[in-house]
Amino acid sequence: MRIGTTLFATGAETIGELKAAAAEVQALDSAWTNQRPGGWDPLAVLPALDGGPRELGTAVVPTYPQHPVTLATSALTVQAQTGGRLTLGIGPSHELAMTGWYGIPYTAPARHTREYLEVLRPLLRGEHVRHSGEFFKVDLGLEVEAPAPPVLLAALGPRMLEVARDLADGTVVVWTRPDTVADYLVPRLAGDSRVVVSAMVAVTHDPDAVHESVARQFGAAGELPAYRAMLDRGGLSGPADTVIAGDETLVLKEIQRFRDAGATDFIGTPVGARQPVLDVLAQARG
Fold it and tell me: What range(s) does the Luciferase-like domain occupy (predicted)?
């Protein structure tokens, strides 16, 4: 199982700070950014991280705000700039964000995502795309020469997992536990699919305080329909129930549980002190 971590790109950090953070995780397999309102553009940031792990990923870039031609162009540009280190994680996000923040109709997310990938993947492979569908009409190819990056889909529901199985290289998920990975996610994906699990991790002697803090900060995420359904599948009350918090031994055991469940990748997002978490992630990789 590959081990990575999150590089926060909220916009409050300088590019120099992001570079330093990437250099600190050189011992890991991967480092990931995401699209945060008001934050750095993840695809624009990644080429600046000349140090860091072999794999640089987005987890994730929302699909609705960007035409697939635009995203394919950006992704291949980043792939060329980073020497083939990009893994492109995408997803439809949530109606709250797309309609509430951007004013974009959140129409048929599973059908929209399937058609998005039907356009995106061939463009990334250097093919000329002729497509006329429900959401997109495209007749062009790209001239950017770069290897096609792997594409992961943020897929939580059964229909989205079908799209990931058919058209992506795997899925990237949050707010889940090992039992859900083994019993729900893995059986719905192709045998060679990546199952990338992102979880908050704290090395601490006071796990209750960590869970309470996460519950206060991220409890609202548990009310978003896709996340709520995922939590319910695992019998979890909220996002805080997915946090891995405890001493090094406990954290390593919990990461091993994800490995045993069939996760191919684990992304540990530090909560509280960052360095102890990075140290444990390096141990888990070793």
Answer: 20-245
